[in-house]
């Protein structure tokens, strides 16, 4: 008969330490959900000789200014940004796209309308057509969005 009892587990806050081993005020996460870690032998060679550093994934707002301006990019989907125009906060649907210059946002209503429901990951060409007055007298930016077909090779 086994008389050993299961030890009592206590939920202890473990502080995160810096790369230099210094303790921080941050508490380590209890779980690492949705993450995967590699064995050191499976890590790719990330040395300077073996990589080209790409663009920042921090998005920037892309403001179309000149009619006829064209941007080719891969469509990443939609997100929501918050406008604080005139002290009034409101959420705005926003298009996300990326090319070799970076990751960009644009919340033009006409552009958002055209790309709503469009499949993520597809290459597109956005042409800014200029401003147009609506029936209510507001000016909106107009766009033409075309799907790009990549040539094999």
Structure at a glance:
This protein has one helix at 109-115; strands at residues 15-17, 23-27, 60-61, 70-83, 90-99, 102-106, 123-133, 139-147. The protein is mostly beta strands. A hairpin with a 2-residue loop joins strand 5 and strand 6 (102-106).
Structure write-up:
The chain has 153 residues and is mainly beta. It folds into two domains: 15-46, no CATH class; 60-147, OB fold (Dihydrolipoamide Acetyltransferase, E2P) (Beta Barrel), CATH 2.40.50. The chain contains one helix and eight strands; from the N terminus they run ββββββαββ. The chain has a six-stranded mixed beta sheet with strand order 3-6-5-4-7-8, with helices on one face. A hairpin with a 2-residue loop joins strand 5 and strand 6 (102-106). The protein is extended and about 80 Å long. It starts with 14 loop residues before the first strand and ends in a 6-residue tail after the last strand. The mean pLDDT is 90.
Looking at the structure, the CATH topology of the largest domain is OB fold (Dihydrolipoamide Acetyltransferase, E2P)
What is the total domain count? 2
Order of helices and strands: EEEEEEHEE
Distinct helical segment count: 1
**Helix proportion range:** under 10%
Strand order of the largest sheet: 3-6-5-4-7-8
Which strand-content bin applies to the residues?
35-45%
Largest sheet composition:
6 strands, mixed
Q: How many runs of DSSP E, i.e. beta strands?
A: 8
